[in-house]
Amino acid sequence: MGTVRQITDEIYQADIDFVRAKEYSGIGITHIVGMTKDDGNVSDIPYLRILKDDQEIVTMEETDQVIKFALECLLAGGKLLIHCTAGKNRSGSIIVLIRAIVEGREFDDVAAEMHDKFMKENPSHNWWPYEHLTIAYKDYLAQKYQYKQRIIS
Questions:
Q1: What does the DSSP assignment read for 127-146?
Q2: 87 in the Ramachandran plot: left (φ > 0), alpha (ψ -120 to 50) or beta?
Q3: What are the tens digits of pLDDT across the range 13-65?
Q4: Residue 57 has what DSSP assignment?
Q5: Which residues are within 8 A (CB) of 15 and not within 5 positions of it... i.e. 6 or more apart?
Q6: C or N terminus of the chain, fewer CB within 10 Å?
Q7: R_g (Cα) of the chain, nearest Å
Q8: pLDDT of 62-87, one tens digit each?
Q9: How far apart are CA 57 and CA 92, in angstroms?
Q10: Where on the phi/psi map is residue 41: left (φ > 0), alpha (ψ -120 to 50), or beta?
């Protein structure tokens, strides 16, 4: 049995065990992004796999793939699950980016909100997006989304 966390009505965060057990089918997930080298054996719904370990940089091209996949899901009214191995840092970092784009907010504001929520749920783990991913994703926002506009209401 794995761990899942509902971030918004449409976005969920999970660990690889949740995905392997296919527990996502019980909460109506329609699309999954895997930010890990382990694919979780997903074959029943659309699945985008970005092969990364904790300290690897996500490229602009890979980030484009994730954002396009996420927006297609969310604009169609779907539910998106983002997972990594532990369901914390890599998945949390990309969720911050997705929410910043979709909600038309600053990356740091979304990160702080998620940090506060995570700390209330799990005070023993000080979650914060990895610094190297924060730098890469802020650069992505600056290059690709120079204006702030809410994409999905």
A1: ----HHHHHHHHHHHHHH--
A2: left
A3: 998 999 999 899 899 999 999 988 876 677 889 999 998 776 777 888 888 89
A4: P
A5: 2, 3, 4, 83, 84, 85, 86, 87, 88
A6: C
A7: 14
A8: 888 999 999 999 999 999 999 987 77
A9: 15
A10: left
The pLDDT assigned to 149 comes to: 58
Question: Which amino acid would we find at residue 89?
Answer: N
User: Which residues, in sequence order, are CB contacts of 19 under 8 Å at separation 6+?
Assistant: 2, 32, 34, 40, 41, 42, 81, 83
Spatial separation of the C-alpha atoms in residues 90 and 36, rounded to whole Å: 8
pTM for this model (two decimals) = 0.86
What distance in Å separates the CA atoms of residue 3 and residue 104, rounded to the nearest whole number?
28
Burial of 45: CB neighbours in 10 Å, binned 0-12, 13-18, 19+ = middle
Q: Cα–Cα distance between 7 and 118 in angstroms, integer? A: 10
Q: What is the pLDDT of residue 128?
A: 66
